[in-house]
Design brief:
Helix content: over 70%
Shape: globular
Number of strands: 0
Order of helices and strands: HHHHHHHH
Structural class: mainly alpha
Length: 130
């Protein structure tokens, strides 16, 4: 837990080093049960850039499944939205799937953070469609 906290506070100059740990962080995230660790791992992963040929489908599926999960903390859901967008933006069909997940959120009570993540992502999707 302490190591993850330190990693979330590293300067941008360490971004390349964090990128080299991406697969390990995803592997840990996919089996993690502690919500604090999930939140910090997703925080680190959402800050990274994803190119079209370097997207792990298991991580994308994980993010998509957390977006509408009312059992997950708000931070996990928000970070999942941001990470999913960064992966989906390369593929119109995945972007449409993400948009469907976001549209389902309209029927839930959303925290201010989730509303912000929802609106920011919907705005980014709209700009990509133009």
């Amino acid at each position: 837990m302490n190591a993850l906290w330190v990693m979330t506070h590293l300067p941008e100059t360490d971004a390349e080093w964090l990128l080299s740990l991406r697969d390990e962080m995803i592997d840990i995230l996919l089996t993690e049960t502690d919500t604090g660790k999930k939140r910090m791992l997703l925080q680190l992963l959402r800050e990274q850039e994803y190119v079209a040929d370097d997207i792990r489908t298991d991580f994308l599926d994980y993010c998509m499944s957390k977006i509408n999960s009312e059992y997950e903390p708000y931070a996990v859901r928000c970070f999942s939205i941001y990470a999913a967008y960064k992966m989906c933006r390369h593929f119109p069909e995945l972007l449409a799937e993400l948009e469907e997940h976001l549209d389902m959120m309209r029927y839930q009570t959303l925290s201010p953070g989730l509303k912000s993540a929802f609106h920011q992502t919907k705005t980014k999707i709209a700009k990509l469609k133009k």
